[in-house]
Amino acid sequence: MLKKISLKDIANQVGVSTALVSYVLNNQKEGRISKEVAQRIRDTAKRLNYRTNQVAKSLKTNKTLTIGLIVADISNPFFSSLARIIEDEADKNNYTVIFGSSDENPDKSGKLIETLVNRQVDGLIIAPPQNSESQVNYLIEQDIPFVLIDRYFPAIETNYVAIDNYKAAYTATQHFIDIGRKRIGMITYESAIFNLNERARGYLSAIKENKIPFRTTWLKELRPNNTKLCIEKAINELLDGPQPVDALLFSSNIIAGWGLKYLNSIGIKVPDQLAVISFDESEALDLFYAPLTYIKQPLQEMGRAAIKILLETIGKSSKPVQLNMEAGLVIRESTAV
Amino acid sequence: MLKKISLKDIANQVGVSTALVSYVLNNQKEGRISKEVAQRIRDTAKRLNYRTNQVAKSLKTNKTLTIGLIVADISNPFFSSLARIIEDEADKNNYTVIFGSSDENPDKSGKLIETLVNRQVDGLIIAPPQNSESQVNYLIEQDIPFVLIDRYFPAIETNYVAIDNYKAAYTATQHFIDIGRKRIGMITYESAIFNLNERARGYLSAIKENKIPFRTTWLKELRPNNTKLCIEKAINELLDGPQPVDALLFSSNIIAGWGLKYLNSIGIKVPDQLAVISFDESEALDLFYAPLTYIKQPLQEMGRAAIKILLETIGKSSKPVQLNMEAGLVIRESTAV
DNA sequence: CTGAAAGCGCTTACAG
DNA sequence: CTGAAAGCGCTTACAG
Prior knowledge:
The structure is a homodimer.
Chain A: H1 7-14, H2 18-25, H3 35-47, H4 54-61, E1 66-71, H5 77-92, E2 96-101, H6 106-118, E3 123-126, H7 133-141, E4 146-149, E5 160-163, H8 165-178, E6 184-189, H9 194-209, E7 219-222, H10 227-239, E8 247-250, H11 253-266, E9 275-279, H12 283-286, E10 293-296, H13 299-315, E11 322-325, E12 328-330
Parallel strand pairs in A: 1-2, 1-3, 3-4, 4-5, 5-11, 6-7, 6-8, 8-9, 9-10
Antiparallel strand pairs in A: 10-12
Helix pairs in contact in A: 1-2, 1-3, 5-13, 8-9, 10-11
The structure holds a DNA duplex.
């Protein structure tokens, strides 16, 4: 790289101190600097194409105007959509975002947190994987501002922004019942992640409260790895036998993606044979021959709230803000009566 | 935040200079420091939970170990997949990535470049929007390492990693011809972006060289804005009249997404009435009842190459490396004979 | 084997 | 209205 122009270069050219240059370029002490000198400083800065070195500024001010975003996988449409919203909101506040993908792996997320903290991010937005409680506690101990998003740990008092997953799953299941379905399956991950458990809990509650005799084989909890085959196997089990399910709730867009592909390939008729609802939308789901009924998370609001809370926390540590937003149910053909 | 532990704190505790602490923690001058002291320094660092302040280190070393990634839109699956690959490759080299979305807008990309440069990123990976030549020239002037990805400006000599879009479109069009299609349409964006022009050029060449009488109405070039309606209109025009097209090439995954949705809704039979090929894959496309034949870009290789070239350029400025990789054609049901 | 010291490019109280 | 100076937390020649 070329030698960069520094404040000192401008100061030398104009024949003033770097202090003065700094004040002018930061629009400080407005009234107290002679207009003429201020203008000469500005002109020179422009002529030399001066760019402030944020690293030096950060070291001095102890602010980097950078936030770290840790998601499970930036290539998952749910997270990349969220990332885009967070990017835009951050930008409005002159913040820049560094991202990292944890792959739902606590070791990776721990390393990411460490890297980002070393880089002195002003705060973090994290979708924490299971078993990462200690990392969250570490951030609390170190008094590093952060907001959990999508998931959280009910036992730890932190900022978070999520949806009411219990209610969302309950509503979806109730919808199946309302359109007359009697045997309702659900495919989800076997996981300690709170939001997934809430989804299963909501599903079970709705079934119970409607006095539908529940069969344990209706709820399939998959290992997160080896997903594709497991999903196919789960679907087979749900559809085989004399009492196949007539409705199916997918607990994530990824599961829905694989699941629909498989339903396609084995020629199941949706919604006639099987009504289907998925958590989260995805361009993908629109191309299924029966556009999917889905649980729509208010991503925009979630991203906005996360940034807002984070910036407030950066400003001054305050009481944790905990937001359980309400998700919508977008009803389409996959649950048509 | 809590007061952070600095090198000085460790130095004070152990009773040595910060220089020594720095050497030990960076594993420098290994043999020349007494084992005993080194061990005490390490123990103390651990006990105090020392984290190095990367900002201070960066200021001194003039390296931030950060790269900037500017794409059109991080929520577009093409770019988020690329981002994920770049993230992983960067991580292997201890680099971290800051991203930004330009929305194909040169003003936005200009601002992003400025922000990232001010933040002293060591280098940039950019998918440049149209009319951003001046920004690229600025980077060259300033001798800031960068690699263009996905698109580039043939008139400017830079590092870039892209596919041979001409060839990819040619191959796709040839495939239509090989399966007996006679009236082949293409929907693309009206744009000065080189890669899109190359796609149109490849399509036209294939038609010409196969001596198919080309009709200008077959090539639809849309304004990038208001896409959905434009695509529907374009499809209507292509399918209306006595001589509807019997094959259709979509020049991006976004266009394909909207296009397929519309084909679905108007009940066109793929591939019987209309054979279809799209640029780029997407989970989405698998859910279309006739899984799509698509042009597969070697994303993994592209991301890897981009990082490799960038890091080499950061190491020492060298001759521009220009990679036109070959895309594959994945043949599926949408072009079945 | 170890330390004193300069310096990276800024900001900001303090003094005048 | 303006400047000299300290300091943010590191690294690294240099000296011993």
